[in-house]
Amino acid sequence: MFRLSNRLPTALAGLRHASSASAGEGQRTALYDFHVQRGGKIVNFGGYALPVQYSDQSIIASHLHTRQVGSIFDVSHMLQTRVFGKDAAACLESVCTADILSTPDGSGTLTVFTNETGGILDDLIVNKVSEKELYVVSNAAMKQQDMGIMSAAVESFKSQGKDVTIEFLTPSDQSLVAVQGPQVATELSKLLPKEVALDKVYFMTSFVTSLAGIPNVRITRCGYTGEDGVEISVESSQAQNLTEALLQSGVLKLAGLGARDSLRLEAGLCLYGSDIDSKTTPVEAALAWLVSKRRRTTRDFPGAEVILGQLKDGVSRRRVGLQMLGAKPPPARSGVAIFSQGQQVGQVTSGCPSPSAGRNIAMGYVPENLKAPGTKVELKVRDKFYEAEVAKMPFVKANYYNKPKK
User: Fold this and answer.
1) What is the DSSP letter of 24?
2) Roughly what angle, to the nearest 10 degrees, separates helices 257-266 and 59-68?
3) What sign has the CA pseudo-torsion 206, 211, 215, 217?
4) Looking at residue 46, what is its pLDDT?
5) Residue 12 confidence (pLDDT)
6) Strands laid side by side in the 107-114 sheet
7) Does 20 score more than 90 pLDDT?
8) Which residue, among 321, 380, 387, 312, has the nearest Cα to 354 in the 3D structure?
9) What is the C-alpha separation between 118 and 23, in angstroms, rounded?
10) Closest to 157 (Cα-Cα) out of 112, 95, 81, 79
11) Does pTM top 0.90 for this prediction?
12) What is the CA radius of gyration of the chain?
């Protein structure tokens, strides 16, 4: 029988544990004290003191509760940004690959910042609030870089007489709470005004409402787990009140970084700095769909010639999913070498035991001729070789609440 490990997933394995009294181990979010009171095991993640798990559940139990019921994650370390002005969309398009101009109001899109060689500088979600306002969420680890990228774009546009301004929201002012799982919509509906029809709010759409009596809350139907769910932007002074309201029925539970990482890996979602970076292009990362059709025609984003050339001529390597074969193999974590016919051909970028699938899974990069699902490879874990095969991603079925096709 497959035995699951309670070790931390790939991206979290090397984190230092912070004592509940130590402020030097990372910047605290508005929910820090609440996490500690609830038995959160605090670690330093990208400079922030966040719970990796809670005392009432193992990482595996928390992972499965998210898949089967629903969980609440503090993701206030993420960078939240607002861009204003009639040229806001065009400004942000100058540094990413999305077609923001054509995105309907109230909808969002996943995109990437790219450099002049086509490398990915970060992944982010851009929500088009209106023709004159954008709401952007990007990664905490790249916060300073992303602020620089967006600020430079704004200053460039302003120097040309364009109408655009930018506001960066700090965790002390604005928090972000992710609520993920199949029962989230039901629980959320109990706290929403009666006139809000959540069944008409589809994946990657966003709106502002009151929630649990708290005004001016932005709800975006998205997440990082592969499940239906939302991310809730709320004033930090109200973050604990909101979280307590979500927990009140006893259905949803608090979850930490450990479950979040294994959930996103099962969903085939990339972690910046591990699975994608500045030397990886969207085409190599199997994210070519992030380069929108109109932008392929306009060819006016950083690295366009490199990326469009790869779309036409192909690439030498590709990100793929991997599943380990045989009896009780150890998990293949980040840095494990991938072999084919006795030669190293690639490297694992993320890997962990999959609580949902009951097997060890990973993702990594292999030569283009080895990318087909079912292709056999070997993974070298602690000087021993273990059989594996290329697998389709996601490893578990995605349950996003998509708008029905007509």
Assistant:
1) G
2) 60
3) negative
4) 86
5) 55
6) 107-114, 120-130, 133-138, 79-84, 165-169
7) no
8) 321
9) 39
10) 95
11) yes
12) 21
CB-side exposure of 167: number of CA atoms within 13 Å? 9
Separation between Cα atoms, residue 93 and residue 125, nearest integer Å: 12
Average pLDDT, the chain: 94
For 373, the token pair is 């699902």
Q: How far is CA 203 from CA 110, 216, 368, 374, in A?
A: 12, 20, 32, 31
Angle at 231 between CA 46 and CA 125, to 5 degrees: 70
Segment 116-135 shows an average pLDDT of 98
- Residue pLDDT, tens place only, 136-159: 999 999 999 999 999 999 999 999
- For 400, list phi and psi in degrees, rounded to 5: -65, 150
Query: Does residue 10 register a pLDDT over 60?
Result: no
- Return the pLDDT at 107: 98
What is the SS3 assignment for 181? coil
Q: At residue 80, does pLDDT exceed 50?
A: yes
Look at the block and give the residue holding tokens 């101009």.
101
Amino acid code (one letter) for 396: V
Tokens matching residue 303: 């690295």
